[in-house]
Amino acid sequence: MSSSGKKPPRPHAPATKVVHSGRAPHDNFGFVNPPVYRGSTVLFPTAEKLWKRDQLYTYGRSSTPTVRSLEEAIAEVEGGAATALTASGYQAVSTAILAFVKSGDHILMVDSVYQPTRKFCDYMLAKLGVETTYYDPLIGAGIADLIRPNTRIIFTESPGSQTFEVQDIPAIARVARERDLWLLMDNTWASPLYFRPFDHGVDVSIQAATKYIVGHADAMLGAITSNARAAKHVALAKEQLGVCPGSEETFLGMRGLRTLATRLAQHQRSGLEIARWLEGRPEVARVLHPGLPSHPQHALWKRDFLGATGLFSIVLKPASDKAVAAMLDGLQLFGMGFSWGGYESLIIPFDPKPYRTATKWTADGPALRLHIGLEDVDDLRADLEAGFERLDAAK
Q1: Which of 19, 133, 262, 271 could make an SS bond with 372 (beta carbons 3.0 to 4.6 A apart)?
Q2: Same structural domain, 380 and 330
């Protein structure tokens, strides 16, 4: 009971938060959605207010009511202290890292990370005098052995990009706290609904909001959500780097956020159904889906995650490039293209051998990454089945 004798309000579930957070209809003449504010110049009513920057909005690059609405919404849904929006997921990664490092520092980067993140480390960070050590995603608490006196960041991504290793985030977080390091996580796969990074000791959660938050494959957007300890560092980096999301893209991110819970539930159901079916296909050697009991880290996923999404990979039994091309080129519903998280199903071939350095990729056959969209599952299965027939005929 509160001092007034009234019960405190019941905490809202995440599915409710994605619908209502960041909204103030009565501040906008009753309209349900915040309007799109487009602009650079913001006027001050007096010289004194201008000198002191004494108002909520001072310049369009820094923030607008549209940007602020989505930042507040994502922070609330994810359980962080503050969110900073960026123009893409990649920009969210680079801005978050730059917020905590300087020349002469060292970072630990998971070997299964999103490939552009690796390129940023190997080129831009190296150019700035920051050294990167890649580590096995399954290292857990053993990461303590890789820490140096100048280590500043441990960067995680779970599940791993393309190969879907699940990291022991709580174990790594304990090490990070003991050594006073910043723990960053790319949480795009699970979204704020299916993994709660701040409950597991993460300092900064990064989303390629382009993916599930936008949800319609029509906007580029990133989000960096921080705990109270990290938020001021991220805010300063965003301001000094001139990071600025587009007005229309921010609005589309807000629109997508409202249906996130409903879409993810369907992605999860359809993804698991297709993944289970693929496990029984004679052409498939392995299905890399953390939600399946066959996944090597399924127990970790079950302990820490609240759900699975529509993205996973498969390893085919040995097949020629010609046979794989025959399978892919004739697909009607699975498009071939980068990104994921939209309403549509996608498929791409990949080979991580050239860009893994701390671990080895040892699959005998070619690998495919699938995103299961919102189409009818029977139709998707039929499309893949016809693809396998072409694969077998071309062997």
Answers
A1: 271
A2: yes
